[in-house]
C-alpha cells in the first residue's frame, strides 16, 4: 500500500463524525491494505509496534521538530516548529504546512528520490530508527526522520508526524479496530474481541481474520507475550452487593502490578508490559520456589520493612527502575510478591473461567503469598474487611464479581476499587504554573486532563495536598516535560499521571472537558500508569451521572 493512500484514508476518517462512518472507513482501509494489513491495523491507532512488544521509537517532540525543520529548509529551525505547534496544537498540521522534498542529499531517505513512499518502506525505516542506540543514536534517529519527511506530501507528513509521537488523533481506538475487522472480513465480533484480549496484537488478529477466520479461535495466551491487565473502576459496597449479591473482597496493596509468565524460565512484566525480570531477582527466586507448573499469574509487588510491614509505593519503583547495582538495591529494599489471579495453569487457559474457579486453581498451584480473599454478602462485613486491610497498612480492598471472567485491558464493572475518604481520578498533567514567593523556583499548580479518543481535555488544576518535599520532586519530574512557556504558564508533554482526590465533579465552561473538579487534592504520582491508562472523559461523565 502506498503511504499516501493510508494518509488519504486517515484524513477521511478524521473528517468523519459518526461512529458508524468511522468504522466503515477503517474497514475499507483494512480491506485494501494487502500485505501491509498488520502494520495498518496498528498505525491507524497511532501504534508502530504490537502492544506486547517492548520496542519503542524513543523519539521525543524535540527530535521530531528538528527533523521537520531540516526537511523544511534553511529558513526553518526546530524553535520555529515548536512555536507553531504551540500555536496550532497539532504537530501534524505543522508538518503538513511545510514544503518538503527539497532537501536532497546523502542524508535524505533514498537520496531524495521522487519515488512514492509505501507503508512497508515507512515501517522499515521506523524499525531501523527504533533499533538505533548508543552514542550518536539521537542524530541517527533525526536523520532517518528527516529522510522520511523529505519524501512526504502534506497529508503524508501530517500522519507521519502524529504516528511518530503517538498522537494519531483521528478518533480510532481499540473498539473501532475490532468492529472494523469484523466488518471488513465478515467475522464474529466476539471472536475478534477475544483474540485481541489474549494476544494484544491487532495486526495478528486482523491478518488472521482475513486469511483464516477459523484460526481466530486458535489465538491463545502465549508465554512471553504479556497481555493487558484487567482493570477496575471506583465503586461502593452497595454497588457491588446490588449488582452481584455475594461479593469477593481482596486486599488492595500499595505496590506495582506484575504479570508473571512461568515456563522454562520466569519472566516478569510491569503493568505497561515492560520486561522487569532483571531488576527483580528476589521476586524471580520467590516464584521459582512457589510453583512447579507452567502458569501466567497476576499479582502485586510491594516493598516491606524489616518487620514485613508495607512501605510506600515509591520504594517499589526504585527497584523496578534499577539497571545497575541490582544486588545492592536488593539489600536496601526488600520486596514481597502477592499473587491474586491466574490466567493460565498447566496447559489450561483460564481467562474465561469465573473468578472463584481461577482462585481455586491458584490455591492449588501456588505455594507463595496469596492476596487476602473472602466472600461477603452485606455492607457491614465489607466495611470490617476494609478496616482490617487499612489497619495492616494497605490501601483498602477490591470488590470483585465472583462469577466474572478475566478480561484483559478492560475497565468494566466486575472489579471495583473501594478507597477510604475521597473519590479519586487518575489524571494526565498537561500544563503547570510556576509558583510565587519562596515557591517561585518550583512548578506549584498543575493542569489536569482526562483522556479522549482525540487526545486530552482539561478538567481542573491542583495545587493543594503537595508538601514542600513533594513540591520539589514533582517540579523536577514535570519540568523535564515542558514543551512551551508563556510567562508563568507552561505546556507539558502528556506523560505524567497524578492520582487526584476531589469532593464533587461539576459542569463547567472553564475547562475543555466541560467539567471541573471541586476541591481537588493531590494524592500521588501514578508512576505505574501511562497517559493511555488514565481516566477517560467517558468515566467522568459516568461519575457525574452517579452524583445525580
Describe the structure.
- It is a single chain.
- By secondary structure, this protein is an alpha+beta fold.
- The protein has three domains: 47-164, DNA ligase, ATP-dependent, N-terminal domain (DNA ligase i, domain 1, Orthogonal Bundle), CATH 1.10.3260; 238-418, 2-Layer Sandwich (D-amino Acid Aminotransferase, Chain A, domain 1); 423-547, Nucleic acid-binding proteins (OB fold (Dihydrolipoamide Acetyltransferase, E2P), Beta Barrel).
- It contains 20 helices and 19 strands.
- It is globular, with a radius of gyration of 24 Å.
- The protein starts with a helix and ends with a helix.
- Residues 104-114 have low confidence and may be disordered.
Quick overview:
This protein has helices at residues 3-15, 19-32, 37-43, 61-72, 78-88, 91-96, 119-131, 137-149, 154-164, 174-185, 189-199, 202-211, 237-244, 281-288, 313-320, 326-332, 355-365, 379-391, 468-479, 537-547; strands at residues 231-234, 247-252, 256-262, 266-270, 295-304, 334-345, 348-349, 373-376, 396-400, 411-418, 423-434, 443-452, 455-462, 482-486, 489-492, 497-502, 504-507, 515-518, 521-525.
Q: Give the helix proportion (percent range).
A: 25-40%
CATH topology of the largest domain: D-amino Acid Aminotransferase, Chain A, domain 1
CATH class of the largest domain: Alpha Beta
User: Residue ranges: pLDDT <50 for 5 or more in a row?
Assistant: 104-114
Tally of domains? 3
Q: How many strand segments?
A: 19
Largest sheet: 7 strands, antiparallel
CATH architecture of the largest domain: 2-Layer Sandwich
Q: Report the span from N to C terminus.
A: 50 Å
Question: Helix segment count?
Answer: 20
Compute the CA-based radius of gyration. 24 Å
Structural class: alpha+beta
Strand content: 15-25%
Mean pLDDT: 90
CATH superfamily of the largest domain: DNA ligase/mRNA capping enzyme
Principal-axis shape: globular
Amino acid at each position: 500500500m502506498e503511504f499516501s493512500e493510508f494518509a488519504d484514508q486517515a484524513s477521511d476518517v478524521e473528517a468523519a463524525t459518526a461512529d458508524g462512518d468511522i468504522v466503515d472507513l477503517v474497514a475499507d482501509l483494512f480491506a485494501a491494505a494487502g500485505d501491509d494489513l498488520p502494520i495498518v491495523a496498528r498505525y491507524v491507532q497511532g501504534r508502530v509496534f504490537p502492544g506486547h512488544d517492548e520496542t519503542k521509537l524513543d523519539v521525543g517532540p524535540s527530535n521530531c521538530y528538528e527533523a521537520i525543520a531540516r526537511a523544511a529548509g534553511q529558513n526553518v529551525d526546530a524553535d520555529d516548529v515548536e512555536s507553531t505547534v504551540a500555536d496550532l496544537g497539532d504537530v501534524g498540521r505543522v508538518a503538513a504546512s511545510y514544503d518538503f522534498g527539497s532537501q536532497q542529499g546523502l542524508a535524505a531517505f533514498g537520496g531524495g528520490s521522487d519515488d512514492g513512499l509505501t507503508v512497508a518502506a515507512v515501517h522499515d525505516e521506523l524499525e531501523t530508527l527504533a533499533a538505533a542506540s548508543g552514542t550518536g543514536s539521537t542524530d541517527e534517529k533525526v536523520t532517518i526522520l528527516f529522510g522520511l519527511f523529505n519524501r512526504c506530501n502534506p497529508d503524508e507528513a501530517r500522519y507521519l508526524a502524529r504516528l511518530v509521537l503517538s498522537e494519531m488523533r483521528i478518533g480510532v481506538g481499540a473498539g473501532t479496530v475490532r468492529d472494523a475487522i469484523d466488518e471488513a472480513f465478515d467475522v464474529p465480533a466476539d471472536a475478534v474481541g477475544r483474540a485481541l484480549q489474549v494476544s494484544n496484537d491487532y495486526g495478528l488478529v486482523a491478518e488472521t481474520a482475513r486469511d483464516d477466520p477459523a484460526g481466530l479461535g486458535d489465538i491463545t495466551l502465549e508465554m512471553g507475550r504479556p497481555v493487558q491487565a484487567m482493570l477496575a473502576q471506583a465503586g461502593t459496597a452497595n454497588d457491588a452487593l446490588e449488582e452481584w449479591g455475594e461479593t469477593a473482597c481482596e486486599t488492595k496493596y500499595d505496590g506495582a502490578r506484575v504479570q508473571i509468565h512461568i515456563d522454562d524460565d520466569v519472566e516478569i512484566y510491569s503493568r505497561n508490559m515492560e520486561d522487569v525480570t532483571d531488576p527483580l531477582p528476589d521476586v524471580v527466586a520467590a516464584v521459582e520456589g512457589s510453583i512447579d507448573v507452567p502458569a501466567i499469574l497476576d499479582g502485586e509487588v510491594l516493598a516491606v520493612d524489616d518487620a514485613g510491614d508495607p512501605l510506600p509505593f515509591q520504594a517499589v519503583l526504585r527497584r523496578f527502575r534499577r539497571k545497575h547495582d541490582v544486588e545492592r538495591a536488593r539489600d536496601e529494599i526488600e520486596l514481597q510478591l502477592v499473587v491474586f489471579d491466574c490466567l493460565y495453569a498447566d496447559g489450561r487457559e483460564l481467562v474465561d473461567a469465573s473468578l472463584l474457579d481461577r482462585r481455586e486453581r491458584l490455591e492449588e498451584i501456588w505455594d507463595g503469598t496469596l492476596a487476602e480473599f473472602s466472600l461477603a454478602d452485606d455492607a457491614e462485613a465489607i466495611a470490617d474487611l476494609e478496616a482490617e486491610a487499612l489497619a495492616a497498612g494497605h490501601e483498602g480492598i477490591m470488590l470483585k464479581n465472583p462469577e466474572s471472567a478475566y478480561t484483559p485491558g478492560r475497565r468494566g464493572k466486575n472489579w471495583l476499587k473501594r478507597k477510604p475518604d475521597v473519590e479519586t481520578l487518575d489524571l494526565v498533567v498537561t500544563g503547570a504554573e510556576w509558583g510565587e514567593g519562596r515557591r517561585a523556583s518550583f512548578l506549584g499548580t498543575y493542569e489536569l486532563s482526562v483522556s479522549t479518543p482525540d487526545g486530552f481535555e482539561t478538567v481542573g488544576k491542583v495545587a493543594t495536598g503537595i508538601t514542600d518535599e513533594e513540591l520539589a520532586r514533582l517540579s523536577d519530574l514535570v519540568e523535564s516535560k515542558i514543551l512551551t512557556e508563556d510567562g508563568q504558564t507552561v505546556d507539558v508533554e502528556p506523560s505524567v499521571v497524578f492520582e487526584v482526590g476531589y469532593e464533587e465533579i461539576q459542569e463547567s465552561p472553564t475547562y475543555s472537558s466541560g467539567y471541573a473538579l471541586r476541591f481537588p487534592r493531590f494524592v500521588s504520582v501514578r508512576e505505574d500508569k501511562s497517559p493511555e491508562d488514565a481516566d477517560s472523559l467517558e468515566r467522568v461523565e459516568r461519575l457525574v451521572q452517579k452524583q445525580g
